[in-house]
Amino acid sequence: xxxxxxxxxxxxxxxxxxxxxxxxxxxxxxxxxxxxxxxxxxxxxxxxxxxxxxxxxxxxxxxxxxxxxxxxxxxxxxxxxxxxxxxxxxxxxxxxxxxxxxxxxxxxxxxxxxxxxxxxxxxxxxxxxxxxxxxxxxxxxxxxxxxxxxxxxxxxxxxxxxxxxxxxxxxxxxxxxxxxxxxxxxxxxxxxxxxxxxxxxxxxxxxxxxxxxxxxxxxxxxxxxxxxxxxxxxxxxxxxxxxxxxxxxxxxxxxx
Length: 256
Prior knowledge:
Layout: H1 6-10, H2 13-24, E1 35-38, H3 46-52, E2 58-62, H4 65-71, E3 79-82, E4 96-100, H5 109-119, E5 125-131, H6 137-149, H7 164-171, E6 175-188, H8 196-202, H9 207-210, H10 215-232, E7 241-254
Parallel strand pairs: 1-2, 1-4, 2-3, 4-5
Antiparallel strand pairs: 5-7, 6-7
């Protein structure tokens, strides 16, 4: 799969930033240790994390060179690491592991989340936000259309994020945990070149599909997806599109 298109991803910076800020508001007093922005992307949360926890060093971790190029222009980070979140290990136990819209890309959350909690300093906090959107038309249409156009090429997608209750049960033995979800009604601006929802998903959920297509195949796929989105998410009178987006949040504070 090709690297992230950081410019396309940043096109919707405001609706992507709001859930991260809502998550940050739930981080409280921290013990000694660094704050880790796990899956930091372009570093959009760097300044906010540093301002919220100014007494802690800030470390960004991401496996995308394209994203880290932009993150390096954010002065808030004390260190940026090009590493996979699944295998990253800290030099010292973090006070906070903050992960916004990144861990849905990793499998086996039943093992991953306990592992991340065990990396924390005693009293440290894990704070995670993940899209809970895979059953919405914006996402299942991608797989449905790809399979219809190119049979036998794409496997059934895995469930990237489990039900909120699953995480509540998983985290309860690990510390003081809180799990909740929010649906954001995003108003996307009209666009001449594509359906607005396509522009939103093209830089994220769609990447594994179009990464396996040549240019002509991708053009066929995008045209079919745009047509389906026009029915699933029709434009308002002013040309904007209302795009409900469901997100899962969780925090856990390690208590031993």
